[in-house]
Write a structure and sequence with these properties.
The protein is mainly alpha-helical. It is built from 13 helices and no strands.
Length: 305
Amino acid sequence: MTHAEAAPRNVPGLAVCAAILSWASAYPLVRMALIYVPPVPLAALRYAVAALVVLGWFCVRRPACPQWRDMPRFLLCGAVGIALYNILFNTGEQTVSAGATSLLINFAPFMSAFVAVVFLGETLPLWGWVGSVISFTGIVLIGSEQPGGFGFGSGAMDVLAAAFCSALYFLLQRPLVARYGALASTAWILLIGAVVLLPWVPTGVMALQGKGAWPWCLAILLGFFPAVLGYAAWAHVVGQIGVARSSGFLYLLAPTTLVLAYGMTGEVPALKTLLGGAVVMAGVVLMQTYGRPRPIPVVLPDGQT
């Protein structure tokens, strides 16, 4: 290892702030937009806006097109990680507060680890299982405070299903980032997700007709900030300091969401929700610090791991 490789890289603070603020803003913005647009058309409108920005970026940067062997993985990432995730996310937020939603989504790292253990043959150390049990206790506390609890079709169950989609997405995306880079692979996935949601765009446009400019502004803000700026800024962060160092900043997402939700919608989370969120975060930090799954090296077709 050279001295340059060994030297620690500076954290790109502006990019971290842009990513966290952009993603955190999605929770209250979705709650506000759902007043005017149903969940699925809202997701379609949001990613139609994002797709326009991505297409403009494609014209300027001209990234490499996905190879045929990677197309099934790109399609799954777009369909599950973008389309289905946002449908479930929006549906859940009809009854679950923005702050509680952000805390429930924090369970995604455990789900990702569970999938890696069950389907990818990775092993989870003891501290990983301990952290998972702690996080699950927090999830139960948060869910018990939501309408319908964890009953079938409840908002909390929809949000947890969205968290599972997020976990699958990050696992599926991993080899694509290695081949195409974080920014290019994310751009292709956003575009594919927008295409999957395209049939609901006309319904979303009709829902906004005659309701003034504000609902259109919400759709545009959702499409640009969380969907484009957030992912682009995070791709820059990961490229600068790596996945391991950057993942710790994601712990700022839930508290940032709570602050934004209060400022934008006046939402005040219940005490049990806050307590459950603290328990979830403690479990996730424990698992990510001492109990990460031990991966089996993945050999790429070109011989790299």
